[in-house]
Amino acid sequence: MSTLWRVADVVSGVPETESSRTIGLRVDGLNGNLAGQHIDIRLTADDGYTAVRSYSVATAGMDEILEITVDELANGEVSPYLVRDLMVGDQLEIRGPVGGWFVWRPTDPNPVQLIAGGSGIVPLMSMIRAHEASENPSPFRLLYSLKSPESGFYREELLTLGQESPKLAVDYFYTRKVPEGWPTTPKRLTAETLLASILPTDAAPDIFICGQTVFVETVTEWLVEAGYPAASIKTERFGGTGGIR
Amino acid sequence: MGIISSGFHGKRRTGNPALPPGQYETGSFPVLTAGPAPYVSPADWEFFITTETGQHRTWSWDDLMALPQADIRSDIHCVTSWSKLGTSWRGVSLDTLFEDVETTSEFTTAHSYGGYTTNVPLQDLLDGQAWVAWEFDGEPLERAHGGPARLLIPHLYFWKSAKWINGLELMPHDVPGFWESNGYHIYGDPWREERYS
Ligand SMILES: Cc1cc2nc3c(=O)[nH]c(=O)nc-3n(C[C@H](O)[C@H](O)[C@H](O)COP(=O)(O)OP(=O)(O)OC[C@H]3O[C@@H](n4cnc5c(N)ncnc54)[C@H](O)[C@@H]3O)c2cc1C
């Protein structure tokens, strides 16, 4: 089923930050998605040329509508179109949702540590939403590494959840610019700061890490060195080409 | 033709006939792994082939180095859409490793350090199509890319070229490996865009 291209109606488009937008897609007959899965989007130019890219689903469990959040990459082929040009009422093609590995299921019993770099928050947000909507009481903790407060996705929702949800803790880390009144100056994430802000090894968390390739590689190394079992760490890398040697 | 996206023109970076459909060329070498990269030193490394009758052969790192080495120049294609053209590798052909192996099985499961598995038909591993590769671009294969050694099966999507290769198990039937059980295609021919199951 998931190999078939299906038509999706664009039902909403809301700016998330200056360079990103959350897009609602309605797909007839879609049976929801697992938290953490992604879809492929295919765009076709008027002469038949096509381009395909993957986008994580930000929502979880809804029937025929899902949302993605796309961050515009300067000089990118697909993301500027999705963020700037696509309009409510347009149609595009999707394949999926796909993926059975980087997913969280409401029956998973363990505490969960989520670690996001930039737009890597998207599939993790889907997990947070699925967890909040479920009866699953296990603690979730999110570490969200960002350039600046303005570049944060889902700001209000995460702020509210971080304050009100009894089962979610949210920690922000700023690399370029901090919010007013923040206790520290912006800096690079280090192993020390990371380890100080996540569930400890003896809590035996399942760990999901998502972001650009270099971010994911670095954080994973730190965690393995700190004694988190490799088998407890799942990673998703967004950079097809980004930031590699 | 699909739904036309008005105002979408695309960058048309894929005019190169060496690129399978839906792939773009990259000059870098992205790292994509399901989890952390395992540490395996050549001293501890071992490669095995196990048959359906229980015949079990192993090669140490020194055994591998003592075998005839092949230089391979090939394009590689990742299912996440990047392709890298004209890569160069050094390693041992699976034809060499299978010389004394008796089997009637048609399938294999490749096993990696760290627990990763992937399924490959035996005929896709023989006749100069696949290698245990330990050098990339004239340098020992980096750990992030599967060092000390990985499978190299350039004619299939690159997830079949299992990193940190430990051995091959001959199988009477095709049994899905790790990604194949998680939504990816059982075979993975890039020219037919066999991405998902
Ligand atoms: C599983 C998965 C989930 C993802 N989820 C999300 C998500 O939720 N949100 C999100 O925003 N992104 C996500 N991504 C990333 C997304 O798929 C795209 O890679 C991203 O949107 C960039 O696409 P693009 O077409 O705009 O850029 P591309 O045109 O692909 O370009 C990417 C970068 O590479 C450069 N580039 C590419 N090709 C060439 C070339 N031939 N020559 C020179 N430079 C080149 C571009 O200049 C640009 O800087 C995900 C990726 C994966 C694999």
Structure notes:
- The complex is a heterodimer of chains A (245) and B (197).
- Chain A contains five helices and eleven strands; from the N terminus they run E-E-E-E-E-H-E-E-H-E-H-E-H-E-H-E.
- By secondary structure, chain A is of the alpha/beta class.
- In chain A, strands 4-3-6-1-2-5 form a six-stranded antiparallel β-sheet.
- In chain A, strand 8, helix 3 and strand 9 form a beta-alpha-beta unit.
- Chain A is globular and about 55 Å long.
- By secondary structure, chain B is mainly beta.
- In chain B, strand 6 and strand 7 form a beta hairpin.
- The chains are: A alpha/beta (245), B mainly beta (197).
- The interface between A and B is large, with 47 and 41 residues.
- Flavin-adenine dinucleotide (FAD) sits at the interface of chains A and B.
List keywords for this structure.
heterodimer; A: 245 residues; alpha/beta; six-stranded antiparallel sheet; five-stranded parallel sheet; 5 helices; 11 strands; globular; B: 197 residues; mainly beta; six-stranded mixed sheet; 31% strand; binds flavin-adenine dinucleotide
- Content-based structural category of chain A: alpha/beta
User: Helical region count of chain A?
Assistant: 5
In total, how many beta strands of chain A?
A: 11
Number of strands of chain B: 11
In what range is the share of β-strand residues of chain A?
Answer: 25-35%
| Residue runs with pLDDT of under 50 for 5 or more positions of chain B | none
Given the structure, what is the number of helices of chain B?
Answer: 2
User: Can you give the mean pLDDT of chain A?
Assistant: 92
Distance between the termini of chain A: 37 Å
The spatial strand order of the largest sheet of chain A comes to 4-3-6-1-2-5
- Summarize the amount of helix of chain A as a percent range: 10-25%
Tell me about the biggest sheet of chain A? 6 strands, antiparallel
Based on CA inertia axes, which overall geometry of chain A fits? globular
By helix and strand content of chain B, what is the structural category?
Answer: mainly beta
Radius of gyration of chain A: 18 Å
